[in-house]
């Protein structure tokens, strides 16, 4: 499955986002780690489809805390178990035809470095590219130790381009590639050690593996780099579509609000000229729509008096409703 006119693969990226919440009576609230910080709130695992520059949300799965599961009779599941359940659902559902699913490529960060997740992706006939922890074993030793010992593996320099503030920025990487190595608990993969120099002079290094044997080292790094699309999407959803604005104490209301946000995002991506632009509130849209309806009276015969009559009738209906 590829975007027309492009050789870009169809990527499915999954990642979790946190929404901070406060209050004693808020349901499904727990502490979650975010880097070196701890956030008290809700965790939502999002699955998005990336086609070129387009990001299409597929599903948002809520992570239930142990306390919330006990109160409602649910079975507690970890974040990785939620991902595995969604992968099994994808294979059994009609969201994509079976011949299309086989061409999907999954991308995720080291937080999902688990053999069960990797096997679940392989079980539905797909490949993955993911960052793994430095102590994950390949060919019987930790991957950081493997690349430290295998000094015979040469360095390669690659250049990738990224869009930043409307401009194309070039980034230089140097990589080492180990093809057909055995990832413990999974099987044969291509492992890449990637280094990038930052502006402060420090080096940013990652260990990336891919189950697709046809991908080169540069393609693996470029594919993983596109994982950043989900982070940008999270930021846009929170700033423009109110993803984390629901303040209800009921978590079912929070889940409903999130689904409405996803629906609004998809509708606005249809580029329908009749839809409001991102950031428009419901009150603003309703007010402008009423003014647009009222303007039709002004173009009719005796329009001013008809407009005043309609306005007085609407005001009277509101006043009667309040009095009742």
Structure report:
- The chain has helices at 66-72, 79-92, 98-101, 115-123, 143-149, 217-225, 228-240, 251-268, 282-298, 303-323; strands at residues 11-20, 30-34, 37-51, 54-63, 105-108, 127-131, 137-138, 141-142, 156-164, 167-183, 187-197, 203-210.
- With 324 residues, the protein is an alpha+beta fold.
- Among the domains are: 128-226, no CATH class; 282-323.
- The longest helix has 21 residues, at 303-323.
- It is elongated, with a radius of gyration of 25 Å.
What's the layout of helices and strands?
Elements: E1 11-20, E2 30-34, E3 37-51, E4 54-63, H1 66-72, H2 79-92, H3 98-101, E5 105-108, H4 115-123, E6 127-131, E7 137-138, E8 141-142, H5 143-149, E9 156-164, E10 167-183, E11 187-197, E12 203-210, H6 217-225, H7 228-240, H8 251-268, H9 282-298, H10 303-323
Parallel strand pairs: 1-5, 5-6
Antiparallel strand pairs: 1-3, 2-3, 3-4, 6-12, 7-8, 9-10, 10-11, 11-12
